[in-house]
């Protein structure tokens, strides 16, 4: 909210404080002040009327002269150097004295007046021109005042120079009481330890009430729904003179940027900003008596609000209604028909308390919020309603010549002040502030808290206070008083000391970090993608058979109140986002993006039976039907070579060796390196070309160029691995780690991705479960032997089949099988060449022994895979 | 053959041999010379293998001589080998020149997302202060997101205009703050403990340069005996000094959160203008870094921790906000566009 410094000074003594000092204190003790704005000319006194007694030449300069000025009757004149030539002896002029701040006549910036020598002559101030005081742009000569002006009086007041400062204060949801000058004045008073000023108008108003007129019509008031409005009041006033506001009301409303409308409306706004209580004035002629009532609107009732819009009301909306129709939306805005007009002379002034949640619902329902609803939504003090009504009535009598009529009320504004106690020891324990209860009570007083002294409390170091009604909502417990005292004491004044170490940190899960390092080290950059996605992106990965009626898969989690169709469901795969990111990059100067993400996929818990059962055991308020799985996924398009100027020429380009296969095998290499970096043994990963749900759930993959990756450790595990598996409760069951493949061309087209892309998606949890414990195996010192084996097989035989057959047949001396080349023999057959490495742990192998193994391997290949051997 | 003749012949072999060896201009020439003068079919070898037929006297004179010749030739051969190797190497090195300014072979570097780097940096600092990283679900119940965090029933944050609700159960939402993890951690752990919880949160907000419907927070929580508000300030000051690697003034001013009391906002001097006011800080000279406070007794009670015995503080910072500050990024959408030209800068 906007706070006028001048207005604030009505409630608390600000002498000796600048607006900036008050702003800083508020920021550090209560509410942040975002900015301090100057309203009007930024002129600060002392600025007085002086009279010229003498004008003498300057001993060292031609263009300036030395004057003698009388600044107060009976005082010695001051010497002031002046460069203007329109002055004569006897003239009365405004004089800025040392310490004053005026405007620089050249550019309007601040000019601070100090006593000092000008070319060797001491000058004790400055004679001011109109532009230096901001009263006109004329900068040439000194402002010559009326000869009858009294010497020594405040020239600022004389010239009507007003300066105000507006503090832009950040409001807070739990502190509706502070959305007013008075509310902030309490804070300022508490923070500076100054008392709040007595309000003189209260006594004056007592007098006015004695003379209140009884011949004015009374508007009876009623509340139909007490749970929405505890108190409702209408005061009638007559003989109200309209017209525009002037003087202090206009100036202050202008300063805080409130549009002035008419005297009456301006006064209601003025009081709202001053005391925080929204008010509304009706033209009494337009109300149909006899009762003005607070009630819920009926379905299909319509009200044209002051902003000229027709509002359709409903049972959710709280309204004010006369005997015929709705005349206003309670706490939000009045109706157009009964608004104050230029000729309104009899008015009904509404002051009421409406419940915050009801006003919020009304406001949302009709899609309208106002300064009034903003305050009601944050809570208005029922016990202060009457005072605000009186204040407005007082101002209407004062400024509009109104006659006071009767006040009619419904409900009760009698609110009991609750009591809260605080142990001084608690303040010490949590904030290290040592205070005696008396001192604490005094600190809280300006905020409206009253000490309730008792001997027991005194002896126990306890303070009991009664809480002001306007703070009843946010101060209910001891801890609330701890906070109040701490901020008045000053957060800045607390002793600052590091907490002592009593708990060691547990080690971090390093796996995601290792995955990132591996993939980044292989040329992929990390993306962070949105987990909220569109239905079409959610469904693009699957064939349509799995979708239920609404187009959403049963396992997907939808947002009930989505921001847009783009964000209506939680993703089940990171792949669509990665394709989009890759496509975006191709459109933005990066033709071959390589991206990965570690992120979550989200499923209904019914996807995983064990999760669903776990959830079912939780109490209802802790239960969700959701399951989140961390995935690592990647997409690569094109090459990530730094440069290809030295690349060899491709020697083969047949159907077994074509460049377009590269994306798949590059991605496979990435996965294999990743696995190795994570200590997942490469020989324990199987790449399955066919799996059960392939056509349903994985239609995002090229059917001929994709694989399911399964962790299936070979039987010959080390003891350590077996031990590890046992510990993890793994019974040697294969673990599905994820999927890899070339992106389905249809999907690439759909996302406008050019070139062949390869993708992979792995479960981080499955990767973790596949990691082997590190244990050292002795390095063999015996010589090794290598044999080459070229196998001719039918085309459909896979490398993995051959390798597995070789390994299964070879004895313990067969250490390694490596494929070295592939040839196409015919349409139906191909030739695969392997290099086999043999080594015995402790003996030197003989050629004969190795030959024997090789022969067995050949036989097995012949038998199992119809292999032939030409060499 | 007489021994004199043999002597002459050996001298001749030596002269010719040395000439041939020293004249060899390449390793091939040298090998030819070796075969010719020292090979198994060379004259020298023939003489030496015919030694047995000589008289003892002849043996005495021819024997050492032939050995001598062999040695001299072998030495010369070795010397010449070395000289030739050096000559040939020099020649090779002379001819082998590359343009060292051509690019290297290999893959371009991959880059780690700035938000990951920021998270790791933050975790590293806080781990050093004894905080353990914990995790929690993003799909949450209203209980963990609001009730247990002392949020009043009519609090506007509960409204569907602020928070996303899902179809994964009754009152199941996308968490709007990582403070949910506080509750989950406190349910499981016995004090004293210190935890940090990085994670994704969701708010129903239109996308613009400052806002995105999802973003990330890092939540910290410390529960112990005699934990004070001043210790919170000290911890955060130290944290930011380590994070920004320079002394930035901070200020600690009152604020309000349902789950902490007293609550505070920690501002730091704007690192771009050092407090003079600039566009980044909206001329304020200060930037909001995080919200924090002493854990509200109601929150402790909700997880069965006795607030009269234990106290604690909590803080939560926006990851994007800190990263934007640290790297001078002006638009939050950069983080989610995943433009390589952006990613490659980190």
What's the structural blueprint in terms of helices and strands?
The complex is a heterodimer of chains A (871) and B (346).
Chain A: E1 2-4, H1 5-8, H2 19-29, E2 33-39, E3 47-58, E4 61-70, E5 78-82, E6 92-96, E7 101-103, E8 110-112, E9 116-118, E10 121-123, E11 126-127, H3 155-158, E12 164-169, H4 181-192, H5 201-210, E13 220-223, E14 231-238, H6 247-255, H7 263-275, E15 279-283, E16 291-296, E17 302-304, E18 310-312, E19 318-321, E20 326-329, E21 333-334, E22 347-353, H8 356-366, H9 371-377, H10 385-400, E23 403-411, E24 419-423, H11 424-431, H12 437-444, E25 450-451, H13 455-460, E26 462-466, H14 478-489, H15 511-521, E27 525-526, E28 532-533, H16 535-539, E29 569-570, H17 575-587, E30 594-604, H18 609-616, E31 626-637, H19 662-677, E32 685-688, H20 694-697, E33 701-711, H21 719-727, E34 735-743, H22 745-750, E35 757-763, H23 764-770, E36 785-794, H24 799-809, E37 814-824, E38 829-838, H25 847-865
Parallel strand pairs in A: 13-16, 27-30
Antiparallel strand pairs in A: 1-12, 2-12, 3-4, 3-6, 4-5, 6-11, 7-8, 9-10, 14-22, 14-23, 15-22, 16-19, 17-18, 19-20, 20-21, 24-26, 25-26, 28-29, 30-31, 31-35, 32-33, 33-34, 34-35, 36-38, 37-38
Helix pairs in contact in A: 2-4, 5-10, 6-7, 7-10, 8-9, 11-14, 15-19, 24-25
Chain B: H1 3-23, H2 27-38, H3 43-49, H4 56-95, H5 114-128, E1 132-133, E2 139-141, H6 142-145, E3 172-174, H7 179-188, E4 193-202, E5 214-224, H8 229-244, E6 250-257, E7 260-269, E8 286-295, H9 297-302, E9 311-318, H10 319-327, H11 334-337, H12 340-343
Parallel strand pairs in B: 1-4
Antiparallel strand pairs in B: 2-3, 4-5, 5-9, 6-7, 7-8, 8-9
Helix pairs in contact in B: 1-2, 1-4, 2-4, 5-10
């Amino acid at each position: 909210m906007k706070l006028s410094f001048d207005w604030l000074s009505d409630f608390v003594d600000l002498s000796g404080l600048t607006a900036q000092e008050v702003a800083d204190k508020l920021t550090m003790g209560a509410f942040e002040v975002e900015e301090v704005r100057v309203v009007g000319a930024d002129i600060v006194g002392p600025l007085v009327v002086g009279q010229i007694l003498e004008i003498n030449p300057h001993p060292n300069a031609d263009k300036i002269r030395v004057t003698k000025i009388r600044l107060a009757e009976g005082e010695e004149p001051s010497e002031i150097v002046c460069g203007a030539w329109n002055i004569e002896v006897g003239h009365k002029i405004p004089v800025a004295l040392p310490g004053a701040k005026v405007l620089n006549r050249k550019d309007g910036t601040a000019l601070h007046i100090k006593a000092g020598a000008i070319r060797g002559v001491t000058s004790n101030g400055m004679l001011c021109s109109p532009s230096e005081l901001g009263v006109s742009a004329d900068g040439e000569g000194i402002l010559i005042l009326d000869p009858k002006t009294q010497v020594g009086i405040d020239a600022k007041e004389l010239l009507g120079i007003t300066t105000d400062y507006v503090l832009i204060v950040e409001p807070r949801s739990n502190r509706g009481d502070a959305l007013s000058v008075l509310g902030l004045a309490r804070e300022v008073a508490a923070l500076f330890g100054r008392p709040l000023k007595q309000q003189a108008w209260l006594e004056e108003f007592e007098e006015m009430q004695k003379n209140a007129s009884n011949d004015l019509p009374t508007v009876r008031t009623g509340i139909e729904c007490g749970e929405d409005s505890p108190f409702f009041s209408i005061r009638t006033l007559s003989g109200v003179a309209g017209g525009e506001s002037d003087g202090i009301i206009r100036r202050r409303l202008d300063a805080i940027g409130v549009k002035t409308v008419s005297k009456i409306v301006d006064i209601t706004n003025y009081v709202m900003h001053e005391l925080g209580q929204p008010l509304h004035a009706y033209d009494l002629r337009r109300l149909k008596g006899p009762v003005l009532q607070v009630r819920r609107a009926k379905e299909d009732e319509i009200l044209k609000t002051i902003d000229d819009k027709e509002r359709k009301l409903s049972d959710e909306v709280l309204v004010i209604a006369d005997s015929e129709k709705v005349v206003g939306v309670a706490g939000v805005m009045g109706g157009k028909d009964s608004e104050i007009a230029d000729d309104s002379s009899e008015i009904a002034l509404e002051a009421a308390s409406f419940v915050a949640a009801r006003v919020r619902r009304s406001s949302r329902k009709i899609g309208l919020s106002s300064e009034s609803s903003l305050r009601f939504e944050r809570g208005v003090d029922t016990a202060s309603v009457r005072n605000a009504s009186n204040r407005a009535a007082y101002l209407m009598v004062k400024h509009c010549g109104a006659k006071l009529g009767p006040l009619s009320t419904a409900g009760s504004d009698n609110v009991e002040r609750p009591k809260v106690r605080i142990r001084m020891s608690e303040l010490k324990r949590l904030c290290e502030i040592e205070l005696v209860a008396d001192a604490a009570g005094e600190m809280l007083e300006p905020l409206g808290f009253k000490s309730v002294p008792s001997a027991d409390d005194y002896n126990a170091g306890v303070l009991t206070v009664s809480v002001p009604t306007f703070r009843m909502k946010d101060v209910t417990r001891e801890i609330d008083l701890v906070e109040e005292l701490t901020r008045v004491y000053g957060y800045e004044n607390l002793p600052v000391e590091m907490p002592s170490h009593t708990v060691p940190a547990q080690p971090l899960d390093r796996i995601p970090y290792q995955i990132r390092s591996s993939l980044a080290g292989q040329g992929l950059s990390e993306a962070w993608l949105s987990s909220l996605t569109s239905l079409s992106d959610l469904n693009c990965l699957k064939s349509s058979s799995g979708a239920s009626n609404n187009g959403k898969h049963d396992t997907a989690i939808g947002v009930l109140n989505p921001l847009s169709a783009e964000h209506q469901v939680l993703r089940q795969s990171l792949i669509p986002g990665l394709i989009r990111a890759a496509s975006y990059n191709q459109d933005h100067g990066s033709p071959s993006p390589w991206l990965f993400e570690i992120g979550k996929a989200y499923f209904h818990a019914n996807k995983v039976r064990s999760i669903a059962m776990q959830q079912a055991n939780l109490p209802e308020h802790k239960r969700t039907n959701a399951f989140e799985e961390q995935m690592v996924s990647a997409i690569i398009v094109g090459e990530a070579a730094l440069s290809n100027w030295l690349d060899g020429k491709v020697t083969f380009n047949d159907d077994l060796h074509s460049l377009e296969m590269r994306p798949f095998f590059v991605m496979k290499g990435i996965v294999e390196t990743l696995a190795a970096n994570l200590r997942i043994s490469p020989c324990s990963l199987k790449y399955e070309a066919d799996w059960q749900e392939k056509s349903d759930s994985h239609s995002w993959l090229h059917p001929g160029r994709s694989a399911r990756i399964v962790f299936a450790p070979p039987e010959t595990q080390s003891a350590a691995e077996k031990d590890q598996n046992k510990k993890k409760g793994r019974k040697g069951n294969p673990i599905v780690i994820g999927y890899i493949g070339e992106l389905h061309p249809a999907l690439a087209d759909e996302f406008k991705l050019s070139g062949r892309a390869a993708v992979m998606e792995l479960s981080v949890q499955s990767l973790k479960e596949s990691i082997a414990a590190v244990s050292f195996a002795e390095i063999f010192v015996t010589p090794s032997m290598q044999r080459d084996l070229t196998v001719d097989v039918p085309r459909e035989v896979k490398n993995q089949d051959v390798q597995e057959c070789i390994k299964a047949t070879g004895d313990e001396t067969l250490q390694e099988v490596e494929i070295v080349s592939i040839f196409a023999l015919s349409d139906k057959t191909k030739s695969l060449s392997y290099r086999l490495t043999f080594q015995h742990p402790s003996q030197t192998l003989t050629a004969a022994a190795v030959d024997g193994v090789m022969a067995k391997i050949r036989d097995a290949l012949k038998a199992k895979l119809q292999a032939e051997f030409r060499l | 053959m007489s021994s004199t003749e043999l002597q002459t012949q050996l001298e001749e072999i030596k002269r010719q041999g040395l000439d041939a060896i020293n004249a060899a201009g390449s390793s091939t020439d040298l090998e030819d010379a070796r075969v010719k003068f020292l090979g198994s079919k060379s004259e020298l070898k023939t003489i030496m293998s015919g030694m047995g037929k000589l008289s003892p006297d002849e043996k005495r004179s021819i024997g050492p001589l032939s050995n001598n010749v062999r040695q001299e030739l072998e030495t010369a051969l070795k010397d010449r080998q070395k000289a030739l190797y050096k000559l040939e190497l020099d020649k090779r090195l002379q001819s082998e020149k590359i343009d060292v300014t051509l690019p290297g072979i290999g893959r371009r570097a991959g880059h780690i997302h700035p938000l990951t780097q920021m998270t790791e940096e933050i975790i590293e600092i806080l781990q050093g202060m004894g905080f353990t990283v914990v995790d929690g679900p993003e799909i949450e119940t209203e209980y963990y997101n609001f009730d247990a965090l002392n949020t009043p029933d009519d609090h506007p944050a509960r409204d569907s205009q602020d928070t996303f609700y899902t179809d994964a159960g009754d009152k199941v939402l996308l968490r709007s703050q990582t403070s949910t993890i506080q509750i989950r951690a406190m349910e499981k752990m016995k004090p004293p403990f210190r935890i940090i919880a990085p994670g994704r949160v969701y708010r129903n907000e239109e996308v613009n340069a400052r806002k995105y419907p999802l973003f990330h927070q890092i939540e910290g929580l410390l529960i112990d005996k005699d934990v004070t508000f001043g210790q919170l300030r000290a911890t955060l000051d130290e944290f930011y000094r380590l994070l920004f690697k320079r002394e930035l003034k901070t200020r600690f001013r009152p604020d309000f959160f349902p789950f902490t009391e007293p609550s505070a906002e920690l501002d730091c001097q704007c690192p771009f203008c050092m407090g003079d006011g600039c566009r980044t800080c909206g001329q304020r000279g200060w930037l909001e870094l995080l919200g924090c406070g002493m854990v509200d007794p109601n929150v402790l009670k909700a997880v069965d921790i006795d607030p009269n015995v234990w106290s604690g503080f909590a803080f939560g910072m926006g990851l994007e906000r800190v990263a934007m500050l640290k790297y001078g990024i002006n638009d939050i959408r950069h983080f989610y566009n995943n433009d390589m030209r952006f990613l490659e800068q980190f």
